[in-house]
Amino acid sequence: MIPDMIDKALSYCEKNKKKFVGDLSKLVAIPSVSFPGFPAQNVVKSAKAVADLMKRSGLEHIQIIKFPGAHPYVYGDWLHAPGKPTLLLYAHHDVQPPGRTELWKSPPFKATERNGRLYGRGAADDKAGVVVHTSAVAAYLETAGKLPLNVKLIIEGEEESGSTSLEKFLKKYARKMQADAIVLTDTGNFDVGLPSITTTLRGLVALDMEVKSMDHPLHSGMWGGPIVDPVLAASKILASLTDEQGRIAIPGIYDDVRVSDEDRRKLEAMPYTEATLREQAALLPSARIVGGDRSILEKGWRQPSVSVNAIQASSKKDCANIINESVWCHVGIRTVPDMDMDRVADMLVDHLKTHAPWGVQVNISNISKAPWWKTEPSGPVFEAARRALAKGYGCEPVNMGCGGSIPFVGPFASVLGGAPALLIGVEDPYTNPHSENESLHLGDFQKAISSAVHLYEEIARTSAAGASRPKELAAA
Ligand code: BES
Ligand code: MN
Ligand code: MN
Asked: From ligand 2's centre to the CA of 127, what distance in Å?
């Protein structure tokens, strides 16, 4: 590689900052919510916009991949570096629902810049990931007319709704996706300006629970007293999920949780205090930190947790003096190594059913499972990534964990025979993903693009990308 080539690619990035933000803003304008009940047509529109961006970036063999009942993936590649490694670059173009529109300071689907951040649904999670990849590719193809290695881009369209067609996709396209390493731009940095490699992901077991006692709502004055209130019954069931300290109270749930002394030491050595958590999460001063006496980072990354994401009975608007006939709840348990996903699901279902008071009916549906994942960040690919991030951000990267889940990672790494998976993203502790006023730090966005430019060159120089693969560990 001529050193000139990378310099030209980097100065292209510098000159095209505005263009990259423009590309991202165009994607944000499409409300590609992949949840059931939202127009699937918008995810198709967003797939087309991603395909178009890939084309403008110089990628080839662009293809919108569709399965019946699934949201489209978008694929593109550039494979003209024979003898050089191949990278599979991942991001997702679907987004979460906008939430309560009245809480957004600017419209969710109109990317808006304020104080060095770009606000909008998907501005960070994960349309920024898409544009990091296409921009770095374009930087080389627009200047040198070639890349230092081969790339395949796969942009998923249903990550936020649990990657339900992943198995079908893998069955059909495993061969097409073959690569020496995977680069996923869908995680975050430990802090703004601090490049980070994510080495663990939690898994997720989630389900819907309906608690029911009658056929229809009843006047609470006429019937209150002898009649079972399913909302109160569900409250008791949900309350039984945690103990006084806020730890999960399902007996045996912690049996398979493995955190080595070394991992624990590393987590404790990271600069993170209760004050950091309070500030980043904007926690009310009276709210206590819960979850037992492990360190905050261990509780967030390496211990399981339970949450109730939504409850619906009547609504604020329709709130009348009634006893609701039923209540609906969505409950999730974040899992960690070495928990067995099927066992966790069974334990959760069993716990909910056996804690139902007063003979109410408990109906469980839509059980979903996304595996946890863990890697050993060593070998030439991780070393190349550390050099690239140091150059792109101007400071040494750190390793971190992630409390969230990405269903794609575990199955893909194993389909690629344990190929290293590099999780380097552009979110930060102030991004507010899945919440109102999601935003991207524009300085870090640009640094992530420069890092990607460096990464291709650094990995191209490690002649045998697949020579030293880390031991991949993933839940079944
Ligand atoms: N980008 C996130 C994963 C993530 C979460 C990265 C937190 C960094 C910090 C991803 O889009 C996501 O939200 N995943 C879902 C997966 C679920 C639907 C199986 C999640 O974690 O809830
Ligand atoms: Mn994401
Ligand atoms: Mn997300």
From this structure: 9
